[in-house]
Each structure stands twice: as C-alpha cells, then as structure tokens.
C-alpha cells in the first residue's frame, strides 16, 4: 500500500474527505473506480474477446459495453463474426437464466 500512500499524497483535502466518506459507506465508489481501472488495464480492448487476435489501432474492430449501468463490462472484437458469436453466447446465457427463474 506504499503506492497508495504516494498516490493520495497529491490529493486535496476535499478529495481525501470524499474518499474517507466513501470508505465509511462501504467503499462503493472506490471499488467501482478500482474495478474500472483494472478492466482498462487488462488486455480488454487489446485482444479480440473471442479469437484473441491482437487488435491493431487501425483495425475495424468493435467494442461492446454491457451489464448494468453502474457496473459496465467491456469487450472488443476483431470482426462482426466474433461480435456475433459473442452476442449468441450472451443470448444463450440470458435464455438459461430465464429458464432457471
Ligand atoms: Zn476475433
């Protein structure tokens, strides 16, 4: 957590108070920010989520955001085929959930 100390050393008192307040309330905002940062840092967006082809900056790739509005997931695809495959998978998962409930 040394890095954390370093990071917050540049924060204003106002920002520190906001973090303290968030932690007191269960840390919902902090956890969300952390999760989003991890999502960004992972290979998400750099590789196709289906075939793992490395995506070039100028590829005509697709990025999909899904999930509840306060907890978005992100996936990138090299082509419509891969995107379609993923959508079908989501559809199957959704149907399974409907059957269970
Ligand atoms: Zn692909």
Task: Walk me through what this model shows.
With 101 residues, the chain is mainly alpha-helical. It folds into two domains: 1-41, no CATH class; 45-101, no CATH class. The protein has helices at 2-9, 13-24, 28-41, 80-100; strands spanning 62-66, 73-77. β1 (62-66) and β2 (73-77) form a beta hairpin. Zinc ion (ZN) is lined by residues 48, 50-51, 53, 77-79, 82.
Write the layout of secondary structure elements.
Layout lengths: L1 H8 L3 H12 L3 H14 L20 E5 L6 E5 L2 H21 L1
Bound molecules: zinc ion.
Using brief descriptors, characterize the structure shown.
binds zinc ion, mainly alpha, 4 helices, 101 residues
Offer a concise description of the structure:
The chain is 54% helix and 10% strand. It is mainly alpha-helical. Strands 1-2 form a two-stranded antiparallel sheet.
């Amino acid at each position: 957590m040394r890095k954390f100390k370093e990071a917050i050393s540049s924060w204003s008192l106002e920002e520190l108070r906001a973090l303290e307040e968030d932690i007191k309330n269960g840390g919902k905002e902090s956890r969300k920010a952390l999760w989003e940062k991890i999502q960004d840092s992972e290979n998400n967006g750099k590789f196709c989520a289906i075939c793992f082809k490395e995506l070039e900056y100028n590829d005509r790739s697709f990025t999909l955001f899904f999930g509840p509005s306060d907890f978005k997931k992100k996936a990138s695809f090299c082509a419509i085929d891969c995107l379609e495959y993923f959508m079908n998978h989501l559809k199957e998962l959704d149907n399974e959930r409907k059957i269970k409930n």
